[in-house]
Model the fold of this input.
Amino acid sequence: MKMTKFKVINRVSRKELIFNSEELREFFRYRNDVCFMRVGKRPNEWRDYAVSVIKPTSEKIFKPFAISLLSVGLVILITKLIMLCI
Done:
């Protein structure tokens, strides 16, 4: 199962955070807490952050397999050439 990831960047400090969908919802959750507001801190607001979606990469088995076959073939070829010269 591919999960969508989000990159969240603070517009002031340029700090980057990476969240999944549940963590993103919790990060921007509205907090109706009197003690929280009394301290002087405000909850995370959408306008203070730039949010972008990180595209999931699909891993393909063919490319690493082809590279490994090519490298093994190259090693065998170089070994045969060296053995012919000796």
